[in-house]
Amino acid sequence: MTELIRFEGVSKAYVSTEVRTHALRDIDFAVSAGEFVSVSGPSGCGKSTLMNLLGLLDFPDTGEVSAFGQRFTRHEEGAMTRLRRGNIGFIFQAFNLIEDLTIQENVEMPLHYLKVGTQARRQRARELLDQVGLSGRLAHRPSQLSGGQQQRVAIARALAAEPRLIVADEPTGNLDSRNSEAIMNLLEELTRTGAALVVVTHAPELAERARRRVRMQDGQIIGVDGPAA
Ligand SMILES: Nc1ncnc2c1ncn2[C@@H]1O[C@H](COP(=O)(O)OP(=O)(O)OP(=O)(O)O)[C@@H](O)[C@H]1O
């Protein structure tokens, strides 16, 4: 299987005036094409930090990152942004949709960054919103939709640029059980399209659906269930 991203000996600390918090300690981790991986562990164990690094939003203090065929030994903002926009989709607990834009415009956003033409952008956004069952809501604003519907928009947005990797941070965290179930089904379907999905979650019912389940504690990976990468 094609390897998309690999961390070797990755560590990351946050330094404030008083304390130094070791958020990640010597992590080795890789994700291959089409995988469905869950990451769980207690609050503060480093899950969000790991997701930020996976999403090429941040860079480790020490260690090496290889992503989409490129090897980084230091923070290279431009290259990381380019790789991120072309290869990675994001889904957040708080949906993170832009209220000033319609649902359709929100889904078009990643394509806008990639300079895809207006017509192609619109068409792709409509197709995706149709796939997530929201074709009747194209001109609505995010706040006019339920939480479950907003998360479906966020999933459509994450898929817009046909990413090879999707990172999701507590995607069902703000949803009731019925909406969570619908979102979990949608995420599972998404892994059948060939994209890799890495999901951080406290919810055992979501974590258990993943083929590989990573457990973290105190900035370290303490266990992996399922096939090794
Ligand atoms: N910007 C920051 N500045 C200082 N410390 C931070 C910062 N971000 C995270 N930390 C600390 O790093 C550690 C790991 O945080 P992280 O957010 O990755 O954990 P988490 O597992 O995602 O937690 P949660 O489940 O509560 O979201 C924690 O001790 C946290 O307090």
UniProtKB/TrEMBL annotation:
PROSITE patterns: ABC_TRANSPORTER_1 (PS00211), ABC_TRANSPORTER_2 (PS50893). It holds the Pfam family ABC_tran. Residues 5-229 form the ABC transporter domain. GO terms for molecular function: ATP binding. Gene3D superfamilies: P-loop containing nucleotide triphosphate hydrolases (3.40.50.300). InterPro entries: AAA+_ATPase, ABC_transporter-like_ATP-bd, ABC_transporter-like_CS, ABC_transpr_LolD-like, MacB-like_ATP-bd, P-loop_NTPase. This is ABC transporter ATP-binding protein. Keywords: ATP-binding, Nucleotide-binding, Transport. PANTHER family: ABC TRANSPORTER ATP-BINDING PROTEIN YTRE (PTHR24220:SF648), IMPORT ATP-BINDING PROTEIN (PTHR24220).
